[in-house]
Design goal:
CATH superfamily of the largest domain: Peptidase S8/S53 domain
Bound molecules: 2-acetamido-2-deoxy-beta-D-glucopyranose
GO cellular component, one term: apoplast
Distance between the termini: 26 Å
Function: Required for arbuscular mycorrhiza (AM) development during AM symbiosis with AM fungi (e.g. Glomeromycota intraradices).
Strand content: 25-35%
Oligomer: single chain
Number of helices: 19
InterPro entries: PA_dom_sf, PA_domain, Peptidase_S8/S53_dom, Peptidase_S8/S53_dom_sf, Peptidase_S8_Asp-AS, Peptidase_S8_subtilisin-rel, Peptidases_S8_3, S8pro/Inhibitor_I9
Main location: secreted
Shape: globular
Pfam families: fn3_6, Inhibitor_I9, PA, Peptidase_S8
Structural class: alpha/beta
């Protein structure tokens, strides 16, 4: 089953956000999360067999890129210049690598680890591994890639509140690891922007007419592909994420006339630096490490990674390793949670020093109504909205009805060749490993007039607004079933599609999307993940090429890749308004002020329109205004993670790999995961009680008193002391105690877990500092 998790498949999962996982794959996650004995198993990548992008005719043995870690150089690393480091690494390589006139070392790392990436044959790798200076050498893995309206949806308005107080993120540098960028796109204009701050040491590889400026201050390419020498975005993903985080205002942005408005990123005055580490096939680990290593050196303030792999132990996870070095340098790291939902334990990027961002819907719909011959209408969405489509009812056919192969219901390429769909409206199902837009292309190729695309039971009520090639509406699973039933009920089913354009104000928004990866965390079940959700479905942002002949070009796409840069931009705003806050303090401010209700003031729902649980929402939906003034924070210093990592039962060597220094866990008082001063609790409760502390830091006014509000999870007793806390100084720290007590098992019923919260509310009514609690019953 593990072999299913191929590079290609993961790429598809993260970029296209469209494919339903086979059920067996889904079950794998569920089983792993439930079965405690499998705690050390985790999904592994298969090796990238065909991943050989260097022209190497002479070499016939398989050659792969290895990540090599070496023992720390003791005599003060700062004295070792890059060139010395490189020569030293070079000197470690086996003799066979030196006979050829070629560069085998692809990257030397300085910040994320002591080590380098090198192209080796298996024999050479074995020889290298035997060197005393070498800690480990293993082949790299390939990771996968995981708006006009979102600022105002998130309460960001010109001249008001957070945008006003944070100067739109002025002076903050957001580093993005992605597929590259499109310099010259109006979203990256720099009118009115100051030069980058003096600390900036980055570099721009673009030259000529389309180069960097005071908005896009750096652009580097780490993809070792002879066809890719510049950090140009050939995919679109990086241009989209960069403009979501910090694109400048572009008036009249739209796609096919829809979602029209001023496109702007979350931190429109922040600087951007692009580190190209991905190409269409995925993101090589050596390039991800090189991108993070360079970004830390360059002096970015925020790192944004809309990419990831499956769960790895943190010492074996390049993003966790790079992110730890980043937070040691005060850099905030925001990552996508993954698009493997709605299954439990399907997360990427689980380390507690990372902000893990799930995806929610926004209150904008681009409406396309499926109207049936019996008069019944179903609401759906589509970005392509032709104004010349007939409102006359056309014959309606279910693609799976007469097809001669099992893929025709999915409208897979070629599957409608012999189905009579000419001039008809065709009902197709989502899934079958076919991109949604390609289904429309198949209907069009077969002569169909329009397509109604129905969700599967997994996505239920979360239709996507896509840029289709013919008139389409994408409807819910329930609507699809009703349409199938109507087709069955009559010999002459008919339908048409009515295009109604952009509508804002859906009271069910934000809702968790079906694809957003869910907790519990696999690598560290005692830390609640995801941390937060943010806008990730049907997001408009900059795109390298025009899809509709409109210029400037924008596109609407979906994924946790889209929600992550929203939070990266918000972190940049908070960095500007609170330059003294640590990355953990910024995370705490975002988490403790999150919304738990939707626009309709009801609990946040999921794709089934049922209340979303804590493993889907984390603390809830980001509320940037409140995050700017949280009152209290739960702070963590980088060294506080040492007792936590020792408590995960990692070996000294494994902890050392994360910290880039020697650690002896026997000399550290290790702590259970739940004792880390994290702004949430994730408890695995057996028959005995558990006791923890949390420490609050006052970042509000000096003299203020807070009292306690507890929402106890079902079948769990909670005791907290003291019940009231008075602060008399700014930055004052106060510790409180929390006990969790299992109650009678009968009360649990069939529930495998329950959830609640601890809230500190200031007596003046100004602050409400809430952390969520998840309790998994053992
Ligand atoms: C480079 O481009 C050429 C021509 O487009 C193509 O045939 C080749 O496969 C590309 N190589 C890689 C590694 O993408
Ligand atoms: C915006 O910020 C300025 C100065 O920082 C302040 O004087 C003004 O009151 C703020 N406006 C609002 C509406 O918050
Ligand atoms: C509608 O307009 C599009 C674009 O101009 C054209 O390709 C298409 O054939 C037209 N369809 C009908 C039914 O007229
Ligand atoms: C079934 O579909 C295949 C292509 O998918 C086609 O070659 C074949 O002729 C079809 N058979 C019938 C009976 O329609
Ligand atoms: C429609 O009819 C087909 C074939 O009889 C059947 O398999 C399917 O379940 C029916 N669908 C609904 C929604 O009733
Ligand atoms: C670490 O080992 C101790 C002792 O065996 C055990 O109680 C604890 O649950 C382990 N922690 C984790 C995170 O596995
Ligand atoms: C806070 O309260 C204390 C004692 O009541 C007082 O001495 C102090 O001046 C107050 N500080 C501020 C900033 O109001």
């Amino acid at each position: 089953m593990l072999a299913l998790l191929t590079n290609r498949m993961l790429t598809i999962l993260f970029i296209n956000m469209e494919l339903i996982l086979p059920l067996s794959f889904a079950l794998m996650f569920v089983l792993i999360s439930i079965c405690p004995t499998s705690a050390h198993r985790h999904p592994k990548f298969s090796l990238p067999k065909d991943y050989r992008y260097f022209p190497d005719e002479k070499l016939e043995v398989p050659i792969l890129t290895y990540i090599v870690r070496v023992k720390k150089v003791d005599q003060g690393d700062d004295s070792l210049q890059s060139n010395d480091l490189h020569s030293w690494y070079q000197s470690l390589l086996p003799a066979s690598t030196k006979t050829e006139n070629q560069q085998r070392i692809t990257f030397s790392y300085r910040n994320v680890m002591d080590g380098f990436a090198v192209k080796l044959t298996p024999e050479e790798a074995k020889a290298l591994q035997e060197k005393e200076e070498v800690v480990s050498a293993r082949p790299e893995r390939i990771f996968s890639l995981h708006t006009t309206h979102t600022p105002s949806f998130l309460g960001l308005h010109q001249g008001l509140g957070l945008w006003n107080n944070s100067n739109f993120g002025k002076g903050i540098i957001i580093g993005i690891l992605d597929t590259g960028i499109t310099p010259g796109h109006p979203s990256f204009r720099d009118e009115g922007m100051a030069a980058p701050p003096a600390k900036w040491k980055g570099h721009c590889e673009f030259t000529g007419g389309r180069t960097c400026n005071n908005k896009l201050i750096g652009a580097r390419n780490f993809v070792k592909n002879p066809n890719t020498t510049l950090p140009v975005d050939e995919v679109g993903h990086g241009t989209h994420t960069a403009s979501t985080a910090a694109g400048t205002h572009v008036k009249g942005a739209n796609v096919f006339g829809n979602a029209k408005g001023t496109a702007v990123g979350m931190a429109p005055d922040a600087h951007l630096a692009m580190y190209k580490v991905c190409e269409p096939v995925g993101c090589p680990e050596s390039a991800i490490l090189a991108g993070m290593d360079t970004a830390i050196h360059d002096g970015v303030d925020v790192l944004s990674l809309s990419l990831g792999g499956p769960s790895f132990p943190f010492f074996d996870d390049p993003i966790a390793l790079g992110a730890f070095s980043a937070i040691q340098n005060g850099i905030f790291v925001s990552c996508s949670a993954g698009n493997s939902g709605p299954f439990y334990s399907s997360l990427s990027n689980e380390a507690p020093w990372i902000l893990t961002v799930g995806a929610s819907t926004i209150d904008r719909k681009i409406l396309a109504i499926a109207k049936l011959g019996n008069g019944i209408e179903f609401i759906g969405q589509s970005v392509y909205q032709p104004n010349n489509f007939t409102s006359t009812l056309l014959p309606l056919v279910y693609a799976g009805a007469n097809g001669n192969d099992s893929s025709s219901n999915f409208c897979a390429p070629g599957s409608l060749k012999n189905v009579d769909v000419k001039g008809k409206v065709v009902l197709c199902e989502i899934g079958g490993f076919v991109r949604r837009v390609d289904k429309g292309q198949e209907v069009k190729n077969a002569g169909g007039a329009a397509m109604i695309l129905m969700n599967s039971q997994i996505e239920e009520f979360n239709p996507f607004a896509d840029v289709h090639v013919l008139p389409v509406t994408h409807v819910s699973f329930a609507a699809g079933l009703a349409i199938q039933k109507y087709i069955n009920s009559t010999s002459t089913p008919t339908a048409t599609i009515l295009f109604e354009g952009t509508v804002i104000g859906n009271p069910h928004a934000p809702a968790v999307t079906s694809f957003s990866s869910r907790g519990p965390s696999f690598a560290s079940p005692g830390i609640l993940k995801p941390d937060i959700i943010g806008p990730g479905q049907n997001i408009l942002a900059a795109w390298p090429v025009s899809l509709d002949n409109n210029v400037p070009s924008f596109n609407i796409i979906s994924g946790t890749s889209m929600s992550c840069p929203h939070l990266s931009g918000i972190a940049a705003l908070l960095k500007n308004s609170h330059p003294d806050w640590s990355p953990a303090a910024i995370k705490s401010a975002i988490v403790t002020t999150a919304n738990t209700v939707n626009l309709g003031r009801n609990p946040i729902l999921d794709q089934r329109l049922r209340p979303a649980d804590v493993f889907a929402t984390g603390a809830g939906h980001v509320n940037p205004l409140n995050a700017n003034d949280p009152g209290l924070v739960y702070d963590i210093e980088p060294n506080d993670y040492i007792p936590y990592l020792c408590g995960l039962n990692y070996t000294d060597k494994q902890v050392g790999l994360i910290l880039n220094q020697n650690v002896k866990c026997s000399q550290v008082k290790s702590i259970p995961e739940a004792q880390l001063n994290y702004p949430s609790f994730s408890i695995r409760l057996g028959s005995s009680s558990q006791f923890y502390t949390r420490t609050l830091t006052n970042v509000g006014p000096a003299n203020i008193t807070y009292s306690l509000e507890i929402d106890a999870p079902l079948a769990v007793g909670i005791s907290i002391g003291p019940a009231e806390i008075t602060f008399t100084e700014v930055k004052q720290k106060v510790t409180y105690y929390v006990g969790f007590y299992p109650e009678d098992k009968k009360i649990r019923g069939k529930n495998l877990f329950s959830q609640g919260s601890i809230k500190w509310v200031s007596t003046n009514g100004r602050y409400s500092v809430r952390i969520p609690i998840a309790v998994v019953f053992l």
